[in-house]
Structures are given as C-alpha cells and as structure tokens.
Write a structure and sequence with these properties.
Strands 16-15-14-13-9-12-11-10-17 form a 9-stranded mixed beta sheet. A 6-stranded parallel beta sheet has the order 5-4-3-6-7-8, with helices on both faces. A two-stranded antiparallel sheet has the order 1-2. It has 2 domains: about 5-25 and about 165-330 and about 345-395, Dihydrodipicolinate Reductase, domain 2 (2-Layer Sandwich), CATH 3.30.360.10; about 40-160 and about 415-450, NAD(P)-binding Rossmann-like Domain (Rossmann fold). The protein is of the alpha/beta class. The longest helix is centred in the C-terminal third of the chain and has 20 residues, at about 420-440. It has 13 helices and 17 strands. The chain starts with a strand and ends with a helix. The protein binds nicotinamide-adenine-dinucleotide.
Length: about 450
C-alpha cells in the first residue's frame, strides 16, 4: 500500500470524506452581466478596504453599485473607476442614504464611524454590510442590537470573511464532530514588519484622519484591526466568547506620532476551559506553521486527536488548511450510542511527528457514484496534495463569497453567518482586549455590562 508518512492513500480518502462532508460544494460563479434582479447598492468609505471590496464586487453580478460616498474626492474617483458602473458620488453619505433606489450599503469607513453610519443606514431602511470590527465603544452595542432587532427585514452583515470560507467551515465541522478529539487550545498570530507606516500630513488633524488606525481616538489598534478576525475564529470554534482575558502589550518600537500599542501578547480563557494564546507584532513576520511557507498570520486549533493549521491567505495566496493527527492520542471514550467520527486506518503512525495532510473539500472527495476517470482524477489530486505538489483551493475567495452572500441575503431575506451577534461579540472581545492591556489586569467578560452603560 502506498504510504505518506504513516497515512495511507485510503486514510487520506477517509479524511477527505470526513472533512468534505461538512460543506456543500460551491461552483464557480456564473457571471451574467446586467441580470434584471441585481440588488442596487451604495458604498460608503472608499479608502483602501473599500476599493478592495469594490474590485471584488465588480465580478459579482448579484448587485449593481449606484453610488459611492467618501469625504475624499480622490478616493471616490478611484473607486468609481474600479467598479466601473458609473456610480454617483457623494461627499456626504446621508445624501446617498436618501436615495430610494438604493436597497443596501456597504460600509468601510474608519472604526470610530462604524456605529453612526450603520445606524443611519438602518434608519434609512437599507440593508448593511459593515466592516469589522462592528462597533468601537461598549455604549454602542445595546443601541445597535435593539435597532437591528426592530428591523427584522433588514440584513446586517459584518466583514468577518473567515466565516465564509469553505475551509474554515470544514474545520468548524471537524471540531464539532470530534475529529480533532477534545479541542482544548488555539494559538494565533498576526505579525507584520514593519507594522502600518505613518503617512505624514501638513497638519495634525489631517494626519490623524489619514492615519486613523494609529490613533486611539479613532481606532482599537492591533486588537481591532488584526485580533478581531482571530478572536472571532476562536469564538466560532469554541462556541462562546471568552470569559476572561489577560495580556501584555506596549507602545515600544514605533515612534512616529502614533499612540496605539505596537505589540500585544494575549491569553483568552473560554467557559469550557479552552484557551487562545495570540500575538500581534510589528517587528517580525516569521510564521512557524505550514513548514515556513507562509508569513504573518494563521491560526492553529489543537485537540487531543489532532491539530489544524489554517490561514485565510490573501488574493495571491489562497486559504490553506493542514491537518496533523496526534501520533499517540489517548484512547477515545465513546459515549453509549455515539457513532465514531471516523475509522482510524491501520496505517496511522504510532510515534514521532508526522507530516500534515491538506484538508480536502467536497469536490476532491470520492463519493462512490462517479465514473472511473473522475474517481482516478480525485485520487490523483489527493495524492498530489499529500505530496505538497498541489494545494487544494476554495472554489471562490472568501471575500467574494461574503459579498455575494450579502447581496443574495438582501434579495432573499437570508440570515448572514457573520450576523449582529457575531459582530457584537467580536467587538466586545476587542474592547476588553484593550482594557486588559491598558489596565494590566485580568478582565472578565461580565465587565461588559458596565461598559455598555458607561457614558460616552
Ligand atoms: N475585513 C478585513 O479584512 C479588513 C481589511 C482592511 C480593513 N478593514 C476595515 O475596513 C475599514 C476601513 O479601513 P481602510 O483600511 O479602508 O481605511 P482607509 O483609511 O483606507 O479608508 C477609510 C475611508 O473612509 C473615508 N471616510 C472617512 N470619513 C468618512 C465619512 N464621514 N463618510 C464617508 N467616508 C469617510 C476616508 O476618506 C477613507 O477613504 C476599517 O474598519 C477596517 O478595520 C477590514
């Protein structure tokens, strides 16, 4: 039998089946330009992220951009050219919200404006996609929750794109089905070198606006900009926000006028005793996962029977997920009537480190009903993946999936995966992360109540 560091080809097929069963296969998007049922949307905040999202929206035919809004004419002009639908341009976003022919808005303004713009858009009757982190201050949470609850026909989605990744969804299913055993820990890092650079401006007010994420007045710093994605993954995998947070951080290396911390080292504890250890640095990008083939950011999910390393990647490097089985897992205690999640192959290694195998999606899973050639093709792809010659890829970038999903949910009244509760829990964890570091103490989730009531 062919071997792959202790995992047989048959073992890989079993693994593929277990992992892939979790997610309905997505086919490549069919682009039918000018489809009659396109959702009409506007875009508010057309800076770096806005422009990026518009670039992706351009190839998603479920919607049409009728207007853009930004206080910067240059950003509006550039983004209008990017989307190419000849959108109207508004310096005041409230004029865009006043248009009755616009059903939805996407919001990518700086964090300190998320709440106000999202609130105004909901009150104007629009569906809203707002970038993470959803809110800036604890006091904004209750009002936004109540507003969304009072408008059940309007969609609110948060820009946490990992929730829309087939791989992340598969890993979540592996966790829930016990395939990694008892999942006790996660680690995560998002390191940059250097961190964001200050873009100097002639006066301080302009400098602060152009570099808003470097100033605490407007930004939640590394916690809001980077950790928000990874604490969301932990909350999703562990099924709960943390009950306590400790950490150290500092403004230690980057002295260009910024006042945010340039490093954070955090430990989050969850109700079932799981922990997330995560770090955010601006002085080094090395990533020890994936055999050093990626840099900067990834998460590792660890259980008594295996681990998964996963990264969402970017436009040039796709999502990657590797599965490592524990060499000598403790005997599994099956509860009465519980089905085994999978049959462990006789060829599993019994000692020593083992090479990870890529997690496979539905299209690479042998279903049993395919023809000979297709089955052989799937075996061949799996074999190439296991040898590291090919990497399995999502059928669509998760950013495309989150955007298409938003437009479809607006049209059909669907419920977003990254909904208001996901977004508020995520924001709350970000706010408490900064509190733990600022006050140099263990912060409890229960302190949120006081923060929500505190005066702005
Ligand atoms: N999901 C992700 O992976 C991801 C990645 C990057 C950024 N983001 C988020 O996107 C948001 C924007 O980040 P960015 O990097 O694009 O920042 P940016 O500074 O490049 O862009 C912000 C834009 O908002 C505009 N703006 C400011 N005030 C405005 C107002 N009153 N009305 C309309 N426009 C206004 C600015 O002129 C600017 O063009 C942030 O919340 C950030 O956290 C998310």
């Amino acid at each position: 039998m062919e071997q792959n560091n202790g995992v047989s080809r048959r073992g890989l097929v079993q693994m593929a089946g277990v992992a892939g069963a979790a997610v309905a296969g997505l086919s490549a998007p069919a682009i039918v330009k000018g489809a009659p049922d396109q959702l009409k949307y506007g875009f508010i905040g057309t800076g770096s992220r806005g422009e990026y999202l518009l670039k992706h929206l351009k190839s998603i035919d479920a919607g049409r951009c009728l207007a853009v809004s930004d206080i910067s004419q240059a950003h509006m002009d550039s983004s209008a050219a990017t989307i190419g639908s000849n959108p109207s341009k508004y310096r005041d976003y409230r004029e865009l919200l006043g248009r009755n022919d616009i059903d939805a808005v996407l919001v990518a303004v700086p964090l300190f404006l998320h709440f106000q713009v999202t609130k105004d858009a909901l009150l104007a009757g629009k569906h809203v996609f707002c970038e993470k982190s959803l809110v800036f201050k604890g006091q904004e949470m209750a009002e936004l929750r109540a507003l969304v609850a009072s408008r059940p026909k309007q969609v609110l989605q948060v820009g946490l794109q990992r929730r829309y990744s087939e791989f992340y969804q598969t890993v979540k299913s592996m966790v829930d089905r016990g395939i990694l055993g008892n999942v006790t820990n996660m680690s995560a890092q998002w390191h940059r070198n250097p961190g964001w650079k200050m873009k100097p401006q002639p006066n301080l007010a302009d400098q602060k606006m152009a570099n808003w994420r470097l100033y605490r007045e407007y930004s939640g710093g590394l916690a809001a900009e980077l950790a928000s994605h990874q604490v969301d993954v932990a909350e999703w995998m562990f099924g709960s926000p943390p009950e306590s947070i400790i950490g150290v951080g500092g403004h230690d290396y980057m002295f260009d006028g910024r006042d945010i911390n340039d490093n954070l080292q955090m430990v989050y504890k969850y109700p079932k005793k799981q922990k997330l250890v995560s770090t955010y640095l601006c002085t080094n990008t090395h990533l020890s996962m994936f055999g050093g083939t990626r840099t900067e950011f990834a998460e590792k999910i660890m259980g008594t029977e295996g681990s998964v390393e996963i990264t969402v990647g970017d436009d040039t490097q796709p999502v990657l997920a590797m599965w490592y089985r524990e060499p000598s897992p403790p005997p599994r205690v099956e509860k009465a009537g519980e089905k085994k999640a999978y049959a462990a192959g006789a060829t599993m290694v019994t000692a020593g480190a083992q090479k990870g195998v890529p997690i496979l999606l539905d299209r690479d899973k042998v279903q049993g009903n395919e023809g000979f050639a297709e089955k052989e093709m799937k075996f061949a792809r799996q074999w190439l993946y296991s040898k590291g010659v090919m990497i399995p890829e999502e059928s669509r970038n998760p950013v495309d999936t989150e955007l298409k999903s938003f437009l479809e949910d607006c049209k059909k009244g669907g419920k977003p995966r990254a909904n208001i509760e996901v977004g508020l829990n995520d924001s709350a964890t970000v706010i408490l992360t900064n509190k733990a570091v600022d006050e140099d103490r263990k912060v409890l989730w229960s302190e949120l109540e006081g923060l929500q009531k505190a005066k702005a």
